[in-house]
Amino acid sequence: MNISHVLIVEQGTPFEEGAFIPLSGVKTVLGRQGNQWDPDIAFNNVFVSRKHLIIHRKNGQFFIEDLNSKHGTFLNNQRLKANEQVPLRVTDKITLANELIQLSFSANLDETFDMLPVNKSVAGHVATDCYLDPLKQEAVIQEVPYQFSGKEYMCFEYLLQNRDGFVSKEALKKKVWPERCGNAEETPDVSNEEINVLLYRIRRKTQRQICIENIRGKGYILSFHEEAGRGH
């Protein structure tokens, strides 16, 4: 199986927070759009050079190279030297434009989850206090409030109602995107990327206190990390 990799946008106009940008080409140029220049991935920021950086794919390995940009490219808070290729590793953080653009390099979890063993020490759970406030659209976990958008709250609420149980992808789509259903029997037209973005935001907002097992092509199981049940 081919393992695809993506950039996850944590911050960066015009992309939405949590957007997945596939790295499918041999070379992917990031920069700012010009009159006669259109990079593979374009950001709307004056601190981004027209040809800011390039990501190379060679024999399944990815490398990042700053193209002598004016304001620099930072990998894990270290400024890269211009025109030097540096290997990328999963979870690496890429920042541009004085941290106004923040990206994470990641494997596509939806495609690779079935290849990875579950770490039971991380995926385990204990009884955890969690309260939902539908008016504020927030969850309170161990007395710490986490606020969600409408879709995020609907998704988290439904998964929590079925805590430690399997929720099919089709059922989740119907619950979170009912406006896209023509009738009760129809499954809404929702892409895997939309679901991945939503789950990414929930994980990030709850500071990874929850574990959402992603079973490729089937559905999800929500549980709590052991650490969430312990006092601080």
Automatic annotation (TrEMBL):
GO biological process: phosphorelay signal transduction system; regulation of DNA-templated transcription
Domain OmpR/PhoB-type: 122-224
Protein name as annotated: Transcriptional regulatory protein, C terminal
SMART domains to which the protein is assigned, alphabetical: FHA, Trans_reg_C
Residues covered by the FHA domain: 28-80
One Pfam family hit: FHA
KW Protein biosynthesis (keyword) present: no
Keyword terms of this UniProt record: DNA-binding, Transcription, Transcription regulation
Superkingdom field: Bacteria
